[in-house]
Amino acid sequence: MKKIAITLGLIIGMIHLLQAQSNKVFLPYLEAINIKKEFQISSTKLLKNYIDLANKFQVVMDGNKDTLFDSEKSMAEIKSKAQQLDAAYFIKGSLNRIGENVIINVSMFETATGNKIWFDQLKAMTPEDLDPIMQRIGNSIGTQTKATSVDDIYSVTNQETAALNQKQTNNSFGGGIGGIVALNNYPLLLTTMSLGWYFDSRNFIFDIRPTWGFDNSDNHMFNIALEMFKPHTSNSNSLYYGGGVSYSTSSINVGYSNNQSYLLSGSGINISAGGGYLFNRTSSVSMRVGGNLFYGIHDIKYTTPNNLPVREASPFGIELKVEILFKR
């Protein structure tokens, strides 16, 4: 009975040892090309921390400080070190700076065979991108999910997804259609058409947007707006909110008794607030669906027939719109 217990204990111990070894991955310092060594240290440590947090692999590193900057080791040397550390896998990667961009590529190999089993590559547009990129790679490494499949405004690949480009800042031109509903004490529903220039600074989106409103009764409204919106997330699809100011001019004929009408006319400053939803923000063609509540800080004058008193009111209403944007 005692021998059986000892045998079972040895078997269980071997199983735990094999499981621990099969989960172990050796991470040498990432190769640094045309970049400060501080980035080599911090990026490698970030990658280790994020792989550990993902809890799929146990990361081991070489404790020999002399190897800190010796990042050009051959595959045979890295494989040999992984075998010494009883790691079933090893990682080889690099940070390659070209201009202001840093290209990060990471590969994972099986120690026993030397076969590559996983690869991914991302581009950091600014140093602030290194942390989220390392987090994404650490979460995805060794799985079917590629870091490049996570589509957001802060990172870009030049390999996996052709639609992802110009992720730091970009300019777009586009147009839209919609409508204006007046909430004053006169009936008004205008069809709108707009053209605009849109600047995406990653954290905020700025618009310069002329809009024409019209109907089949010769009523018309024109305004040119300067707007700022804040996307709720950095994802390609996201809610957004914000507001702006515009210069507006309008001319509206409102029905009166005996088939007569009076004219609403005036111009001045409007303020607006609203939001909507962004679609495919990271693509070359994107779409926005949204609306604004606007209020005029100027008066529209009612010029009435038969010498009735002139009345004044501030324009107030809702603008709804659908816009298609094309990146330059």
- The CATH class of the largest domain is identified as Mainly Beta
Question: Biggest sheet: strands, sense, closure?
Answer: 8 strands, antiparallel, barrel
Structural class: alpha+beta
Q: Report the radius of gyration as a whole number of Å.
A: 31 Å
With strands numbered from the N-terminus, the spatial order across the biggest sheet is: 7-8-9-10-11-12-13-16
CATH-derived architecture of the largest domain: Beta Barrel
SSE arrangement, N to C:
HEEHEHEEEHEEEEEEEEEE
Fraction of residues in H or I helices: 10-25%
Contiguous uncertain segments of 5+ residues: 10-21, 156-167
Let me know the average pLDDT: 79
Domain module tally = 2
CATH third-level topology of the largest domain: Porin
Number of helices: 4
Molecular shape: rod-shaped
Please give the number of β-strands.
Answer: 16
Distance between the termini: 79 Å
Strand proportion = over 45%
Task: Give a quick set of tags describing it.
8-stranded antiparallel β-barrel, 4 helices, 16 strands, Porin, 18% helix, 6-stranded mixed sheet, 328 residues, 2 domains, Rossmann fold, rod-shaped, alpha+beta
Overview of this protein structure:
The chain has 328 residues and is an alpha+beta fold. It contains 4 helices and 16 strands. The protein has 2 domains: 2-149, Rossmann fold (3-Layer(aba) Sandwich); 170-327, Porin (Beta Barrel), CATH 2.40.160. 18% of the residues lie in helices and 47% in strands. The radius of gyration is 31 Å and the shape is rod-shaped. A hairpin with a 5-residue loop joins strand 9 and strand 10 (220-231). The chain has helices at 2-22, 37-54, 75-84, 130-140, and strands at residues 24-26, 31-33, 58-60, 89-98, 101-110, 116-124, 170-182, 189-200, 205-214, 220-231, 238-255, 261-279, 285-296, 300-303, 311-313, 316-327. The strands form 2 sheets. Strands 7-8-9-10-11-12-13-16 form an 8-stranded antiparallel barrel. Strands 1, 2, 3, 4, 5 and 6 form a 6-stranded mixed beta sheet that branches. The termini are far apart.
